[in-house]
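Example record

One chain of 175 residues, shown exactly as stored in the release files.
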Amino acid sequence: MKHNRIRIIWLLIALFSTLFVVPAGAENHREVKLGITQDERSLNLYTYNTGFPGLELVNLLYDPLFILDKGNKPIPWLVKEFTVSEDGKQYKMNLHDQILWQDGKPLTSEDVKFTYEYLLKYKKSRFITPAALVKTIQTPDPTTVIMELEKPEPDFFIQPLADLPILPKHIWSSG
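Predicted structure tokens for this chain:
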């Protein structure tokens, strides 16, 4: 299933990349057309249509901290390096320090903290239970995230770390 999802995402990326050839005289034209079978309304965590291609399209805009390989092994994505405490309750993650949002602002640990807090405040069923596993989130610096869980959770990498798309605080906090 994940292998098919990755294949679909790559196909969508290939499709999108062909859309960025700008014909002469159309430098200011910023419309992307994509053929899909249903209306996706807007592409955010709260308005996409459940299932395919909704979340796959959202994931083209927002990335999770980890991705899963075909064997469901977590691979750091936005995270450069991480450690998990021996008791399985604390996850310390260092983000890559040169990741930028589409508007050029940097991804920070505050974006990660904001995302988890936002999802608990404005409930989205798919992400509520996984986000609620986190007891506290500390952000000692712009690239460090420390998540403390109430109890060890074996699937924490799969959901939420490799599933929950991180939101840009500087955009989402104003609405």
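Notes: The chain has a mean pLDDT of 83.
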